[in-house]
Amino acid sequence: MTEAIEQFFLETVGKELCVLFCSMLPIIECRGAVPLGAVLGLPWWQTALFSVAGNLLPVPFILLFIRLILKGMHSCRIKFLNRFAAWLDRKIEKNKGTIEKYSYLGVLIFVGIPLPGTGAWTGTMIASVLGLEPKRSFLAAFGGVLLATAIMMLVSYGAVAIF
After folding, report:
1. Closest CA to 107 of 127, 92, 89
2. Phi and psi (nearest 5°) for 102?
3. 49 Cα distance to chain centroid
4. Is the dihedral of CA 25, 156, 119, 50 positive or negative?
5. pLDDT tens digits for 112-160?
6. The whole model's pTM is what?
7. Of the candidates 102, 137, 101, the residue with the CA atom closest to the CA atom of residue 122
8. Cβ contacts of residue 27 below 8 Å, gap of 6+?
9. How far is the CA of 121 from the CAs of 30, 31, 61, 72, 109, in angstroms?
10. By the 8 A CB rule, do 15 and 134 touch?
């Protein structure tokens, strides 16, 4: 069964788009996409390119619309959406201290740490909720994604293979 799923994705979508789509997923982001690219046998530069691109695609939408979405989820009658919005609020509250303390550098550092829950999704949500300027927040998230991708590239491909 898993072989059929794997074969479907690799033959239908291709290795490159598998990496791109994987890096777009919250929590997984480039932290999962880079090792996936390495396992699939992609050259390091293709893995880096598709991981960074996919990780950054959701960022502008998060920066522009997350406050409106959270407001709608809080006032929604569907309990699951209320709980999910409350969970997001707790996650934002838990991690906002770093970003408040260091502002845009905090966004860069927070996004750049390759640990689950510290990626571009969470970092830009916090930046948006704190009211940081979207263009500068995007640039900080971009720098953080580059940093996280570089760290994951070193771990997944090894320093010798890249340089």
Report:
1. 127
2. -110, 0
3. 14
4. negative
5. 998 878 899 999 988 998 889 999 999 999 999 999 999 999 999 986 4
6. 0.85
7. 137
8. 116, 117, 119, 121
9. 11, 12, 10, 19, 13
10. no
State both tokens at 47.
């893995």
117-137 exposure pattern, b = at least 16 Cβ within 10 A, e = fewer: bbbbbbbbbbbbbeebebeeb
What's the alpha-carbon Rg for the chain, to the nearest Å?
17
CA 133-69-77 angle, 5° bins: 155
Q: Please, are residues 119 and 62 in contact by the beta-carbon 8 Å criterion? A: no
Q: How many CB atoms lie within 10 A of CB 140?
A: 28
* Dist. CA 98–CA 81, nearest whole Å: 27
**pLDDT digits over 10-33, tens only?**
778 889 999 999 999 998 999 999
Could you give the CA distance from residue 20 to residue 154 in angstroms, rounded to a whole number?
Answer: 19
What is the C-alpha to C-alpha distance for residues 144 and 125, in angstroms, rounded to an integer?
14
> Which two tokens mark 4?
């059929």
Q: Residue 2 burial (CB < 10 Å; 0-12/13-18/19+)?
A: exposed
**Tokens linked to 112:** 């750049």
Structure tokens at 46: 């293709």
